[in-house]
Design brief:
Helix content is 26%, strand content 22%. The chain has 13 helices and 25 strands. A hairpin with a 3-residue loop joins strand 23 and strand 24.
């Protein structure tokens, strides 16, 4: 069995797969990930992706990417392309050509006619509203449609005419003939086909009728020889219909459906409908907005694919619903980036500091570690001069006792450079601090003072003469409510300050050479990556995540 890197080794689904193999129920494990191309994938889909591809890898089987493209009203080639890009980025072992439910439209149509011929399906003229009224409730049985007992020949003729485009949208549907008094509402003569005159992303105008998900899904599983059809819990009540259709059609394979709990995460919505609303109403810049929980949004924010897989591997695969703390994902992101990201200095809210006793025009170079976690990463050269930029928050004129950064008369260390002492504060007409005057101790170059004096504060800095400017976008959680999905109006829980854009930030010169999408640590500030909007003329960085790890601290207290 292959090493598992995509999920838990022990869970009820893997136990079922082992049992099926040991008992000879199956010879080869075949799973599938079947997204509908009506939006972008999100972190919740990553759980299903890692489970399906992980199980296939562990048991020497295969996993198909199959698009459930049966509803052209909401589907688009953009989404198909984005989903494939997301799977490639996640690196879960997808190396096969994508499959589509639409590949099987002719076979599905033939099987629908087979149900009609067997007296197990009929064409219904009731409207969608009437079908809902006839369906009954959870406590009351449904009623038979007045068209339920049409003759087989009439049903076949009408169904063929539906395909030929003889009827208006919504005027007729094909329904399975099961039991209108069934306790499971999904068995009360479900709709199998509807008329939809909308061009399909792949088949164009070839079809004007389309199978429903319930009809296409199980049959496509059978066509592909799927051994284990893994779905989230909302499909549990659909399983009897899944099995009924498999039992009543001449399929050669016998897939089995198993359900597991979906991913819910704090301060996040993982409903595709609600994510679509955020995009369409302009609350975010698009599906790949770094505040979105979409795979493309995470990628644009600089989250490593390894961190996503690590996060998913820590989740339980069970039937128990629960909510995962978003801090757990953040911990996985930090853990991954801390090992791999290069360290650089950047000043986001710059305040000028002039070292009055440093020779004008002099430039020194300091060696600074690229990554203290990885000695093989080596060092880099950082230029130093008389005028530097420091963070405005690193100075306080009237500092309290426990403020260990710079203040008037106080001495601090500049990272990898010298000790400096603030001697004067320059203000503008409004009283705002615009410049600091300091002196430095040349005996403290990259080391402690010869006389043994200590300083408690170490500041990062950027040489003013060598700084490159950039726009930095500070992203923070999109929602203020821990459970925004439970709110009557989830839009009302959006945070107004989830994005702060800082202009004219000062960066050390090596940051002008960061590769597209590369994540670096801005020392003392967090992890940042270049944005696709970035160019050599106008650098743009996104904050991936801050340095503080609340999840790790919480776990340490347990």
């Amino acid at each position: 069995m292959k090493e598992n890197i995509l999920g838990s080794v022990n869970d009820f689904i893997r136990d079922r797969v082992r049992s099926d193999l040991e008992e000879g129920e199956i010879n080869t494990v075949v799973t599938r990930f079947p997204p509908e191309p009506n939006g972008y994938l999100h972190i919740g889909h990553a759980k299903s992706i890692c489970l399906n591809f992980g199980i296939a890898a562990e048991f020497g089987g295969i996993c198909n990417l199959r698009f459930d493209d049966t509803n052209p009203v909401k589907e688009d080639q953009e989404f198909i392309d984005a989903i494939q890009a997301d799977l490639q980025w996640l690196s879960v072992g997808w190396d096969r050509q994508a499959k589509y439910a639409s590949d099987n439209f002719e076979q599905l149509f033939a099987w629908a006619k087979r149900l009609i011929e067997d007296g197990k399906a009929y064409v219904d003229d009731l409207t969608a509203v009437e079908i809902r009224e006839y369906r009954g409730t959870l406590t009351e049985p449904g009623r038979n449609s007045p068209y339920r007992d049409r003759e087989i020949e009439e049903n076949l003729a009408l169904f063929n005419r539906m395909r030929d485009g003889d009827f208006e949208d919504g005027s007729r549907v094909l329904r399975a003939k099961i039991d209108m008094a069934a306790g499971n509402i999904n068995l009360r003569d479900p709709v199998l086909y509807r008329i939809v005159r909308v061009p399909h992303p792949r088949t164009g105008d070839s079809w004007c009728i389309y199978p429903t998900y319930d009809f296409a899904h199980g049959q496509t599983d059978a066509i592909e020889g799927i051994s284990h059809s893994l779905c989230t819990l909302e499909f549990e009540d659909h399983r009897p219909l899944y099995d009924w259709l498999i039992d009543n059609l001449p399929v050669t394979a016998r897939p089995r459906q198993y359900e597991f709990s979906r991913l819910n995460m704090s301060y996040t919505v993982l409903s595709k409908r609600r994510l679509t609303q955020l995009v369409e109403e302009g609350h975010v810049s698009g599906w790949d907005d770094p505040r979105m929980p979409t795979i493309s949004g995470l990628r644009r924010r600089g989250v490593p694919a390894l961190a996503v897989r690590d996060f998913i591997s820590r989740l339980s695969i069970s039937k128990s619903e629960g909510t995962v703390d978003a801090a757990m994902l953040e911990h996985c992101i930090r853990d991954s980036l801390n090992q791999t990201s290069m360290r650089r200095m950047a000043v986001l809210r710059p305040l000028k500091l002039v070292i009055e006793n440093y020779p004008e025009g002099q430039v020194e170079e300091f060696q600074s570690a690229n990554n203290p976690q990885d000695e093989s990463a080596g060092t880099r050269v950082v230029p130093f001069s008389r005028e530097i930029w420091i963070e405005r928050d690193d100075f306080m004129e009237d500092a309290p006792k426990k403020f260990f950064r710079l203040s008037l008369g106080r001495e601090v260390r500049l990272r990898s450079a010298y000790f400096v002492t603030c001697t004067e504060v320059i203000k503008d007409a409004s009283g705002e601090v615009i410049e600091l005057r300091c002196t430095y101790d040349p005996e403290t170059r990259g080391a402690n003072a010869p006389d043994g004096r200590k300083v408690k504060g170490t500041l990062h800095w950027v040489s003013a003469a060598h700084a490159v400017e950039a726009e930095v976008r500070l992203y923070s959680p999109l929602f203020a409510d821990e459970n925004p999905g439970a709110a009557e109006n989830f839009i009302s829980t959006l945070r107004s300050n989830s994005l702060e854009v800082l202009k004219s930030c000062k960066l050390e010169p090596m940051l002008a050479e960061v590769a597209d999408g590369e994540v670096v640590q801005f020392e003392r500030l967090g992890y940042f990556c270049t944005d696709p909007d970035s160019s050599s003329r106008a650098l743009v960085f996104n904050r991936t995540i801050g340095l503080r790890d609340t999840f790790a601290k919480a776990m340490a207290k347990r």
